[in-house]
Amino acid sequence: MADVGFYHVTHQSPLAALARLMEKAHGQGLRALVRVAAAARVKEVDDYLWTHDPESFLPHGTARNEYPELQPIYIAEGEAAAPNGATLLVLLDNVTPTALEGFDRVLYLFDGRDDDQVAMARAHWRDLKAQGHILKYWQQQDGGGWSQAA
User: pLDDT tens digits for 98-146?
Assistant: First the structure.
């Protein structure tokens, strides 16, 4: 069973939170698959990760790029597989958390300022708990960092 962390984003956009988390993951040498809800969102996330910080370089790719297996961070729609051998799965846009096999960790980011996203995250929490996954809840702090709630 995967270790699933629910990241309640409240002090910045989910994309800004994603960028910070991916910088940390990349710095640790982890490979990540970022699943989003729609093809247009793949492009939006891709563009954001290239431009979010002029001082930062966060290597990543999508299906539009060659050599997906070489991408440290791969962005895809829906239940895409991890062509890059990712062990970290990131779910945005309340993508249904299915096909978690093969991932050591799952980060489920949801916008705490959106009541529909909060409700969907709660439903996904219940489903994953019933399946026996190890669940952790992370609350975003003022500076954008995270603290684990008990």
Answer: 889 899 999 999 999 999 999 999 999 999 999 999 999 999 998 889 9
Q: Are 113 and 121 in contact (CB under 8 A)?
A: no
Contacts of 52-57 with C-beta under 8 Å, sequence gap 24+, read 52/15, 52/16, 52/19, 53/19, 56/19, 56/23
Evaluated on CA atoms 136, 96, 90, 13, the torsion sign reads: negative
Range of the domain at 116: 3-149
Number of domain units in the chain: 1
Residue whose entry in the numeric block shows the structure tokens 């431009």: 51
What's the predicted TM-score (pTM) here? 0.95
